[in-house]
């Protein structure tokens, strides 16, 4: 330390920087943020890039100096322009997130690329993210995979998760669940909760590994211990259904609630379902509706459908056909088949909307062709009675039979009456 201090006092920039680091960390000297800043500044004024960056960090956090975001960015830029990869990465992140500078994805990509070219793992991962999502560059899954792989092979867990996701979904590379599992495992073994949750999902479904509910529970639990919301929801499902653990509705409710309170929409739906049916908790339609609404407002179609059902039937709230139609429509716009069928029924009955059999038939046909039995039955009724379409007994019977094959009871009865008509 004596030698470093002597060199620093003689104006050696590198020594000044290291003396600043020593004061910052209290190594060989008493910890002192102001002294650290003083030595960083001396080195930075000589153009020493690392000192410029560290001084920028001090300004960013207000450590040893009054916080000044503009000065922090200015110092990052000076270090970045000298080729210091960490500063290039930080500057890219600022532009990416619009922090302390106006958001500019193109500039973010430019700085990430400079850092990535020097082997900066996080910059490589983030550049992959920009290519995956088309931020600041034309979307290119293949290039995203290339950059994720570079970072993943350096051991960066977030990139390993991203690369696993690309393999799982076949984005930019041939779909391969085994490869997905391999990369998830690498990140999971580093303790990353998202990877642990993903690995649990692969075991639960037997994707890329032999199906194993107990192993799924084990990995979900590791992520839950870190407060991971998706894992809390997933482990809740395992308890609710008795997969890999003894069935326990109360534990399922507890886990769903933890995730739901973090804003996880699937958990909000599941918690609502438990309240609606009184599983593991006292039955309460108002609470069910409250949780469905939270998920519905996040845009989840299933919750929007449930909310529509609640409004149509007055479950946990005042009955309101117009609100029911509104929520059914939101879910329908996302392709939710049950909601589309229900919206068709509202048009057919003129509930909450002007009666319109033609519109009802249009809605039913879309989901009937996808195989939804109630819609197939409703379409059969429309042809049978000539409502919204020209009467056609042959088409009516055809749709009734499609629904009957799926075990739809009303369709079975209609097929029976159709047959009687033919013989009478």
Describe this protein's structure.
Helix 16 packs antiparallel against helix 17. The termini are far apart. The model has no long low-confidence stretch (mean pLDDT about 95). About 70% of the residues lie in helices and about 0% in strands. With about 425 residues, the protein is an all-alpha fold. It contains 24 helices and no strands.
What does the secondary structure layout of this molecule look like, with pairings?
Elements: H1 2-9, H2 13-25, H3 33-44, H4 49-61, H5 69-81, H6 85-97, H7 105-117, H8 121-133, H9 141-153, H10 157-169, H11 177-188, H12 193-205, H13 213-224, H14 229-241, H15 249-261, H16 265-277, H17 285-296, H18 301-313, H19 321-332, H20 337-349, H21 357-368, H22 373-385, H23 393-405, H24 409-423
Helix pairs in contact: 1-2, 2-3, 3-4, 4-5, 5-6, 6-7, 7-8, 8-9, 9-10, 10-11, 11-12, 12-13, 13-14, 14-15, 15-16, 16-17, 17-18, 18-19, 19-20, 20-21, 21-22, 22-23, 23-24
Compact description:
This protein has 424 residues and is an all-alpha fold.
> In total, how many beta strands?
0
Anisotropy-based shape? elongated
* Strand proportion: under 5%
Q: Could you give the order of the helices and strands?
A: HHHHHHHHHHHHHHHHHHHHHHHH
| Average predicted local confidence, pLDDT | 96
Please estimate the helix content.
over 70%
Low-confidence stretches: none
Largest sheet: none
- The rounded Rg comes to 30 Å
Oligomer: single chain
Helical stretch tally: 24
Provide the structure class: mainly alpha
- The N- to C-terminal Cα distance equals 108 Å
């Amino acid at each position: 330390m004596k030698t470093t201090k002597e060199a620093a006092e003689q104006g050696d920039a590198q020594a000044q920087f290291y003396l600043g680091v020593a004061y910052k960390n209290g190594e060989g000297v008493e910890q002192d943020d102001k002294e650290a800043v003083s030595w960083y500044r001396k080195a930075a004024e000589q153009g020493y890039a690392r000192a410029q960056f560290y001084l920028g960090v001090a300004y960013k956090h207000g450590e040893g100096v009054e916080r000044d975001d503009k000065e922090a960015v200015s110092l990052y830029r000076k270090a970045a322009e000298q080729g210091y990869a960490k500063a290039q990465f930080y500057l890219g992140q600022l532009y990416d997130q619009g922090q302390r500078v106006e958001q500019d994805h193109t500039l973010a990509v430019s700085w990430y690329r400079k850092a990535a070219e020097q082997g900066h793992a996080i910059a490589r991962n983030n550049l992959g993210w920009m290519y995956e999502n088309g931020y600041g560059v034309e979307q290119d899954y293949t290039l995203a995979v290339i950059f994720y792989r570079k970072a993943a092979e350096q051991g960066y867990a977030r990139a390993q998760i991203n690369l696993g996701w690309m393999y799982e979904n076949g984005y930019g590379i041939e779909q391969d669940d085994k490869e997905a599992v391999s990369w998830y495992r690498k990140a999971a073994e580093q303790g990353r909760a998202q990877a642990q949750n993903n690995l649990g999902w692969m075991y639960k479904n037997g994707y890329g590994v032999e199906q194993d509910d107990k192993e799924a529970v084990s990995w979900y639990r590791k992520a839950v211990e870190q407060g991971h919301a998706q894992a809390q929801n997933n482990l809740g499902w395992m308890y609710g259904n008795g997969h890999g653990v003894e069935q326990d509705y109360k534990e399922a409710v507890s886990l769903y609630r933890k995730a739901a309170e973090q804003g996880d929409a699937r958990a909000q739906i599941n918690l609502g379902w438990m309240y609606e049916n009184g599983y593991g908790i006292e039955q309460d339609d108002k609470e069910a509706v409250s949780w469905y609404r939270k998920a519905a407002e996040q845009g989840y179609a299933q919750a929007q459908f449930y909310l529509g059902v609640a409004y149509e039937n007055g479950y946990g709230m005042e009955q309101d056909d117009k609100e029911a139609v509104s929520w059914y429509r939101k879910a329908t716009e996302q392709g939710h088949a049950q909601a589309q069928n229900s919206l068709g029924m509202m048009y057919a009955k003129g509930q909450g909307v002007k009666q319109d059999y033609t519109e009802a038939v249009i809605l039913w046909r879309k989901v009937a062709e996808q195989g939804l039995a109630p819609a197939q039955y409703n379409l059969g009724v429309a042809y049978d009675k000539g409502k919204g379409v020209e009467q056609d007994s042959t088409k009516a019977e055809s749709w009734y039979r499609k629904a009957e094959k799926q075990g739809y009871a009303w369709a079975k009865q209609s097929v029976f009456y159709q047959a009687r008509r033919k013989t009478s």
